[in-house]
């Protein structure tokens, strides 16, 4: 039974139409030439490469195994022209902090809508000081009917 199923699957695979990768008479395919392709791989795992195509794509990247646990730290840049004609230039670093691109075209988070009032900043600082004092054992929390109250000194 297994042989029959395997034979049937093989027959279907052989009979499936093959894609025609050749150029058809009504379609034209533009071939983009590679103008520059320089690759260097060192024995220590370091590498760099530079690539440039005939349609203006440029890629340059270098990497070294200097990250945590021998991971490869990469840096480079790439550029191309967007479909709307905008030139795109991106510089990047990829390391233990992840992929970090830099470009004037990348979106930027909006500015905070208003300044934080000073009394809020004071309260945040006060809470941080209380947390630090509690961690050092200088502050203890005692429950009461009104909620926790705090006293300085030994518990």
Mean pLDDT reading: 84
The low-confidence parts are 143-147
Beta-sheet strand percentage?
A: 25-35%
Roughly what percent helix? Answer: 10-25%
Structural category: alpha+beta
Query: What is the spatial order of strands in the main beta sheet?
Result: 1-2-3-4-5-6
Main beta sheet: 6 strands, antiparallel
Q: How many DSSP E strands?
A: 8
Order of helices and strands: HEEEEEEHEE
From the alpha-carbon coordinates, what is the Rg to the nearest angstrom?
31 Å
Distance between the termini: 79 Å
* Separate helix tally: 2
Overall form: extended
Compose a concise summary of this entry:
The chain is extended. A 6-stranded antiparallel beta sheet has the order 1-2-3-4-5-6, with no helix packed on it. Strands 7-8 form a two-stranded antiparallel sheet. It has helices at residues 2-15, 118-135, and strands at residues 34-41, 47-53, 58-64, 73-81, 87-95, 98-102, 139-142, 149-152.
Structural account:
The protein is an alpha+beta fold and 155 residues long. Helices cover 21% and strands 34% of the residues. The chain contains 2 helices and 8 strands; from the N terminus they run H-E-E-E-E-E-E-H-E-E. The protein has helices at residues 2-15, 118-135; strands at 34-41, 47-53, 58-64, 73-81, 87-95, 98-102, 139-142, 149-152. It has a 6-stranded antiparallel β-sheet with strand order 1-2-3-4-5-6, with no helix packed on it. Strand 7 (139-142) and strand 8 (149-152) form a beta hairpin. It is extended. 1% of the residues are buried. The model is unreliable at 143-147 (pLDDT under 50).
């Amino acid at each position: 039974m297994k042989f029959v199923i395997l034979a049937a699957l093989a027959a279907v695979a052989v009979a499936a139409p093959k894609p025609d990768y050749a150029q058809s008479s009504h379609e034209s395919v533009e071939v983009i030439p590679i103008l520059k392709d320089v690759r260097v791989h060192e024995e220590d795992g370091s590498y760099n490469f530079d690539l440039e195509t005939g349609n203006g794509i440029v890629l340059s990247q270098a990497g070294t195994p200097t990250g945590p646990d021998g991971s490869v730290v990469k840096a480079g840049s790439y550029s191309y022209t967007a479909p709307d004609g905008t030139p795109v230039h991106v510089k990047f670093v990829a390391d233990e902090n992840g992929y970090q691109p830099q470009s004037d075209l990348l979106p930027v988070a909006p500015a905070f809508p208003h300044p934080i009032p000073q009394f809020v900043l004071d309260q945040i600082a006060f809470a941080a000081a209380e947390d630090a004092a509690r961690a050092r054992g200088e502050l203890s929390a005692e429950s009461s009917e009104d909620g926790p109250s705090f006293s300085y000194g030994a518990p």
